[in-house]
Amino acid sequence: MIRRTLEATLKKVARQYPVVTLTGPRQSGKTTLVRAAFPSHEYASLEEPDVREYALADPRGFLAQFTGRVILDEVQRAPDLFSYIQTLVDREDKPGRYVLSGSQNFLLLRSISQSLAGRSAILHLLPFALSELEGRKPFPLEKLGRGLPRGRQESSADPMEALFRGFYPRIHDKDLDPATWYSGYYQTYVERDVRELVNVGDLESFGRFVRLCAGRNGQLLNLTSLGNDCGITHTTAARWLSILEASFIVHLLRPYHANFGKRLIKSPKLYFLDTGLLCYLLRIQSPEDLRLHASRGSVFESFVISELIKNFLHQGREPDLYFWRDSTGHEIDAVIDQGHERVAVEIKSAQTVVRDFFAGIDFWRNLVGDPETPAALVYGGERSYRRNGVAVYSWIAL
């Protein structure tokens, strides 16, 4: 089993809270993680019809059968359980008594906010980070832009192969063909999860909407344009996009709004959280296709953004990650807010670093008035080093 970075945080919060909730997209490894982290817990999956029927018909009796600590998987399928769990943990506040997991962020978080606020720690598990596949710790976020990886970072992986393959565990565990797996994953997602999250009458239009979103990966979000191209209203486009967010399919990267005396862009940027799924939706057929594809840069950018998000989430932290762009077109691909300082991150898919790659960072440093402010450049090459006062990171160093 490939060890998950989140496991340490999961065990830590289970010693502090009576309820621990783990959410994430389907097939991200949630069940495997909680069962490995808590081997002595009892286990019940509400995905099984008879178990779900028992929980829905007699929630008190269902919970009473567990005499010790228990893992309840896909718990959003029996939402009434949350109120009964609240009563039980208020009566006996035992750390780690209930470990809840599920794939539908909407339903889970709504139920938690209504019944388990203050009683539950909430963690999110995304598919594998590159560091997990490489069997090492992720690069420390607090050192990003200042330090470099210790020793030489080496990998036999080709960046285009890694991005095309994506990071869902089952593909790596079973060495599956990515195109076939993502086809089945996407069809199941649209036909099942979307119908359960919200009533989408026309699944064909929703599928077209998802592919249009893929074509806009890495771009500023324009819901009116997106809706017009799909033949739906602005309101419907916003609702459908919220489904993609709740399903951990996409992430909306918000703009950084520090007042630098410039007119700033206020729209978020749209990113897919898994590059393999993104390649499938863009109909990219192979790593060689990706290497020559017009969307290569945006796919690579999506990879870096998702790796940074995983770095935050898999340590139990909310991502303090933004982008910055002014009305004249000056832009920083990612800004990490470290509280006491801001780290600018530029992203380039090329394997060779050229001087022009530093233009955005130079402008940013002049804007903030600090030529030494930490900055990073992530690129598609293999070597990490310093250049022009900027920490240059190989894609395998994150």
Strand content: 15-25%
How many domains would you count in the coordinates? 2
* Poorly predicted runs of 5 or more residues: none
Regarding quaternary structure, how should these chains be classified?
single chain
Give the arrangement of secondary structure elements.
Blueprint: H1 6-14, E1 19-23, H2 30-37, E2 42-45, H3 49-57, H4 59-64, E3 70-73, H5 81-91, E4 98-102, H6 105-115, E5 120-124, H7 130-133, H8 159-165, H9 169-174, H10 178-197, H11 203-215, H12 223-230, H13 234-246, E6 250-253, E7 269-272, H14 275-281, H15 287-292, H16 296-313, E8 321-325, E9 331-337, E10 342-347, H17 359-368, E11 375-379, E12 385-387, E13 390-394
Parallel strand pairs: 1-4, 1-5, 2-3, 3-4, 10-11, 11-13
Antiparallel strand pairs: 6-7, 8-9, 9-10, 12-13
Notes on the protein architecture:
With 398 residues, the protein is of the alpha/beta class. Helix content is 42%, strand content 16%. It has helices spanning 6-14, 30-37, 49-57, 59-64, 81-91, 105-115, 130-133, 159-165, 169-174, 178-197, 203-215, 223-230, 234-246, 275-281, 287-292, 296-313, 359-368; strands at residues 19-23, 42-45, 70-73, 98-102, 120-124, 250-253, 269-272, 321-325, 331-337, 342-347, 375-379, 385-387, 390-394. The strands form three sheets. A six-stranded mixed sheet has the order 8-9-10-11-13-12. It has a five-stranded parallel sheet with strand order 2-3-4-1-5, sandwiched between helices. β9 (331-337) and β10 form a beta hairpin. α5 (81-91) crosses α6, α8 packs across α14 and α11 (203-215) packs across α12 (223-230). The radius of gyration is 22 Å and the shape is globular. The mean pLDDT is 91.
